[in-house]
Every structure is written in structure tokens, then in C-alpha cells.
Amino acid sequence: MSAIEPTILSLLGAFPFDRVYVESIIYVSLYVSLTAIVLSTLASIPIALGVGFTDFPGKGFVIAVINTGMGFPSVVVGLLVLFLVSNQGPLGPLELVFTKEAMIMSQFVLAFPVITGVTLAAVTSVEDGVRDAAYAMGGTRLDVALVTIKEARYGIATGILAGLGRAISEVGSVLIVGGNIASADGTAITRTLTTAIQLEARQGRFDTALILGAILVTIVLSINAIVLRLGGGRI
Amino acid sequence: MMSQRATLHRQPDSQEGISIAGVTHGFGNGAVLEDVSLSVNRGETLAVIGPSGTGKTTLLRLLSLFERPDEGTVAIDDDDVWERSERDRLAVRRQLGMVFQSPNLFDGSVRANVSYGLRIRRDWGDRVSAWLSILLGDETEPQVERALDQVGLAEHADRDAGSLSGGEAQRVAFARALAYDPDFLFLDEPTSDLDPRNTAVIEDAIDAAREDGLGVVIATHDMHQAERIADRVAVLLNGEVIELGPAQRVFEDPRDRRAQKFIDGELVY
Fold first, then answer.
1. How many Å apart are CA A138 and CA A127, to the nearest integer?
2. DSSP secondary structure letter of residue B105
3. How many domains does chain A have?
4. Which residues of chain B neighbour A151 with C-beta distances below 8 Å?
């Protein structure tokens, strides 16, 4: 019981560490995850539309790969991205090891199949008749695609949120490619909320880990609430 | 610009229109349509009647350029549409309107649905402005008001499309196809799920559209409706046009024995 008391006290307001340190961790987490999600979304939606509404050989295989990717182990993704950006890898000259950009790459790979898979399900559930109506009124392929996106927007938003959840709560790959680095002055460079929680817990600072965890949950809840609000409660 | 285009195409003495000639079309399990030829002029209503599954919807989809026929031609004013470039074909498609058996309305307001055809004809800057106007609720496009008025829903422009009854939704779908002032209107059993009152509203709107110079093709299995609204009637059976002529002549004195049986209600599918 005595070990819990300080934790409760901390949660009640006695912040146990430097505010600048925490803010920098939050910044790194949001910067990496939101950038990865924006890029994943930009790539996922056209691919989901293309896969959903085009017949081509191997379409079933592509869908199976996307679905498999939704549950792909994050540490394996981290290893693959590390291979890509390491000195011997194809992206070695870019010197991306232990940078935010490498973390964005790994989170992109993690979020992409989630957003694509959910978006694919959302756009293919839009009734053919709605797309036919857009076409019949003189819509171009782009017009029909935009109508489809609009009709499927709640499903797509759900996919983006699921991708964000997977990205921002992930530890393994960002630890491998980012290195969980903080500078000498105590600001995070590649340290995210998840990797910081892992570090604090491993060093026995459970109160700190819990507060960081609470911040992470609050951020995810806040983003969900904002999207829910924008969606008029339909997500 | 739109009305100018429409005026150019709607010379009162013009006998030109949309036609299909020698069209055979199928979907892998044999031909749905077999060597079908017919046409409709501007200012005329053609009813295509026949039992369910006889190819009426396929015929309308070919006329509205959803699909290229396996054989034969689709022409507007004697110009084979499928020989044109995709860009030219888009311009042709924008002279056409179609109403389906289901309303297929978009998520959003009645006004947003009815103005869709107008918005996609604008450049992107104007589209964004129109979209913002809808969001701000200050859009007053006369074509939208007129089209809604034609189906008796002028007071319902700001309602959510999801809140409409089935009949109201189908009337909005009709207004949506009228709003951008097409030259030809294709109606695929537009009243089959409607009550008599909504059916009467749609039929009045069809008459008004024809009087306004549109060429109308309506697929229906309601022979009384065809008799009420059509200038000419085509009887489609097993993918073939077995009877084609003035409505009165077809219903009173059909030349084809199978058409006679269908009209007499003896040919049931």
C-alpha cells in the first residue's frame, strides 16, 4: 500500500518531473503520430478507392495483404524500417536512424493498412446507386470518388482514428528506429509518451509512468472526442 | 450558359434525338438485349414496357452511357457517342439525366442534392463557393428552386434528405435530374414503389418536362401509366423490341401476337 501512496499523491497534482520535459515528449509524440497519420490517410484513401472499385488480377490477394497488415507486429515493422534507414540499407545516405523521420516512417507503415482496410470497407459499403446517381448527373471519375468519400466519411474517420490509435500507442517500432533519445538539457528528441512510459516503468518510477500514461489516454480521448463532435456523434 | 446550350439543342422543328441502333448487349450469360433499335426525340415521351428482367434497365443504362454496347451504336443527333473522345462524351453525358427505381439521394440537404448536377459543372473555385453557400444556408439557385417547385417540394429545400418519405425522396431525385436542364431524361420505373399521390406528382412532372422540350424514356411495367404519359411505346420481351409505335396504336391494335398477350395480361413472368 505504501508504494501506491506517492502515486496517488502525484496523480493529485504533485508533478514529479520537469514540465519542459513532458511538453517535449508530448510534442514529439503528436508530431510523429499526426504526421504519419496525415501521410497514411493521403495514401490510403486513393488506394482504398482504387482497390474497392477496380477489378484486377490478384485483388483478393491485395485485400488479404491489407488485412494482414492491420495486425502486423510493430517490432517487425521497426526492424524492417531500421534495415531501410541503417547505414547499409537503401535509405542509409539519408542518415535517418534515430530521427523523428524514421519514427514517422515506421508509424506510417503501421497505420497505413489499418486506415486502408477500414476505408476500403467503408467505401465499398456505399451503395452502388449513390455512385450511379453521381455518374448519371454528369460526374467525372473524380466527382464519383468524392461523392463516395463523402458518403463514407464516418467510416473513413473511424479508420483514421483506428490508425492514430495504433500509431500513438505503439512502442516497439519507435523504440527500435527512434532510440528513445532525450537531450542533455532534458528535452525529448525521439522520446515519445509510450517509450518514456516504458523507460520510467523499467526504472521503477511508476508514478511518473502512470501520469504519462494518463496524458496519453487523455490525448487519444480528446482527439476521439473532437472527431466525434465533428461527425455529429455518428462515429 | 446552360440555358443557352439547351436552347441551341431544342429547336422546335428538330427531329433529331437520341437513338440506339442494332444494339446487342450482355453480361457474360448471354445477351440481355438482342439487336435493339429505337430512338426518342426532344419533346417526346417513349415508354418501354415489358415484364421484369426483360432488359429495360440495361436499355436505359446504355442510353445514359453507363456502358458501351457490345454491338451497335448509341447516337445523339446522328453522332455516334462511343466514337467520341472521353472528354466529348462527358459533354454528351451532361445533356442526360436519369432517375432510378430507388432515389439514391446523397447524405445532406434536399438543396445540396438538387444542386449537385449544377455544382459539378462549375470550375473548382465556384464549386467551393457553392459548397460554402450551402453550408451557410444562403444559396439561392433559381434552377434548384424551379426544379423543386416542379415536384411540389419548394418548401422542403433545407430538410435533411434522410428525413424524407419514400415518395418525397423520389420526387427530390426527379428534381435533381431536372435542375441542370438536361436534353434527355431516362426514368427507370420511377414510381414503382410510390403511392398514387406521389405517382401523380411524378407523372405531372414528366409531362411538364416533355412540354419543356426534354426527350423522356421511361421504363415501366405499369401499362396504364405508359398509356397516360407516353407518346410512343416500345414493348420489350426477352431483350427484343417486339412492338414499337404510337401509344394509342400499340395498346389498341398491337401487331405482334406476344405484345397483344402481354397487354392483355396473358403473358405473365
1. 18
2. P
3. 1
4. 106-107
Does the distance separating the beta carbons of B102 and A129 come in below 8 Å?
Answer: yes
Domain count, chain B: 1
Q: Do A133 and B121 touch (CB under 8 A)?
A: no
Q: Which residue on chain B is closest to A147 by alpha carbon?
A: B106
On whether the CB atoms of residues A148 and A123 are closer than 8 A, the answer is yes
Using a 10 angstrom Cβ sphere, with 0-12 exposed, 13-18 middle and 19 or more buried, the burial of residue B268 is exposed
User: How far, in Å, CA of B242 to CA of B168, rounded?
Assistant: 35
Task: Tell me if chain B has a CB within 8 Å of the CB of A154.
Answer: no
Is the predicted pLDDT of residue B85 greater than 90, yes or no?
yes
Q: Is B94 on the interface with A (CB under 8 A)?
A: yes
CATH number, domain containing residue B15: 3.40.50.300
Laid out side by side, the sheet with B17-26 consists of B31-41, B17-26, B71-76, B79-80
Q: Does residue B36 contact residue B240 with C-beta atoms inside 8 Å?
A: yes
Record: contact B106-A150, CB cut-off 8 A: yes
The residue range of the domain holding B37 is: 2-105+184-263
Q: Would you state the pLDDT for residue B191?
A: 94
Q: How confident is the model at residue B137 (pLDDT cuts 50, 70, 90)?
A: low
Residue pLDDT, tens place only, B2-34: 333 333 344 444 447 999 999 999 987 788 999
Domain housing A58: 28-195
In this prediction the ipTM stands at 0.88
